[in-house]
Amino acid sequence: MTSAPPTEVPAAYLSLREDALARLEAWQAPDPQQEQWRRELVEHCLEHPGALWKQGPPQHLTTGAIVLSPSLDRVLLTLHAKAGMWLQFGGHFEPEDTTVLAAATRETREESGLPDIVLDPRIVELHRHELLATAFGRCAEHLDIRFAGVAPDDAAFAVSDESLDVAWWPADGMPPETEAELGPLVRAAQRLLA
Q1: CB 50 within 8 A of CB 108
Q2: Domains in the chain and their CATH numbers?
Q3: 66-86, pLDDT tens digit by residue?
Q4: Is 112 strand, coil or helix?
Q5: Alpha-carbon span 168 to 156, nearest angstrom
C-alpha cells in the first residue's frame, strides 16, 4: 500500500517559491507569449505553496539553462533519456537549492558535466509544456524558468544518468524537433549574451 504524498510543504520549497515570485514579478517579458507565461507562472506560485516541490501539484515549476559557445553559434545539448530528444539542461528543484538560479546552475552542472559553468543571472525565457504521462509519472506539465550560460568550445562535458548523450550542435542546425522546441530559447540567449 502506497502512502499519500505529504501535504505540508517543506520550508526550503517555500523559500524557493518566494525567490521565483520575486524574479518573475521583476522580469520584463520581451513579447506577449512570454508575458502570458510570466503571469501564469506567478498565478501558479500564488495559488500553490508547493509549486516548486515534486510532491506539489502535477504542474511543476522547473528550471534549467541553455549553454552556448563563446561565439554564440553553437549550443550544448543533452539527448534526454525520458523525452528522447535533444534538449537544454534542467529539471526539478531540490531542498538544498537556495535560489532558482542556484537550482538552474546545479542542474546544468549535473547534466552537462561542466563543474564550473556560470549562468547569467537574468531570466532568458519562460516555457510551459505538457509531458508524456508514462515517462514522467505524476508530473503532468513543466513550467520552466530558463537561464543561459557560456562554455568554452573545448570544455570537457560528460553524459549524466539522465541523458543518453551530450554534444555541441550548430545553433542554426539543431534537429527539427529541437529547433521547434528550443529555437526561440537559443535566439533569446544569443540576444541576451551578445
Answers
A1: no
A2: 11-193 (3.90.79.10)
A3: 999 999 999 999 998 888 899
A4: helix
A5: 11
